[in-house]
Write a structure and sequence with these properties.
By secondary structure, the chain is of the alpha+beta class. It has helices spanning 12-22, 50-62; strands at 2-6, 28-33, 39-44, 91-94. Strands 1-3-2-4 form a 4-stranded antiparallel β-sheet, with helices on one face.
């Protein structure tokens, strides 16, 4: 299971710094540039208790994250996907979680 954090404001450097900071609480596994104004960070939250995941996202919101990605059914940008403008949504960072046996 992964959790997504997205920012609608701040520079890319500021957004990246916040994503790296949040990676102290759950492993940051992927960062995608939306080709708009935001970076989307995926966190590996599988196996974490739901209250801990909720705290992570509540904390992210206090740092400027958008709440629209809290619902599990929320559509999001596809890594290396194509926007309707033809712009590719570039993967800036990828560090997959370890495989499980």
């Amino acid at each position: 299971m992964s959790g997504l954090v997205e920012f609608d404001s701040g520079t890319f450097d500021a957004q990246a710094a916040i994503l790296l900071h949040l990676g102290r609480y759950a492993p940051l596994v992927l960062v995608v540039h939306s080709r708009g104004k935001s970076l989307h960070g995926w966190f590996h939250v599988e196996g974490l208790p739901e209250p801990k995941v909720d705290r992570l996202f509540r904390y992210a919101v206090t740092l400027g994250a958008d709440t629209s990605h809290w619902p599990r059914c929320q559509l999001t940008r596809m890594p290396d996907g194509m926007r309707d403008t033809g712009q590719r949504q570039t993967v800036f960072f990828f560090s997959p979680p370890p495989a499980y046996a």
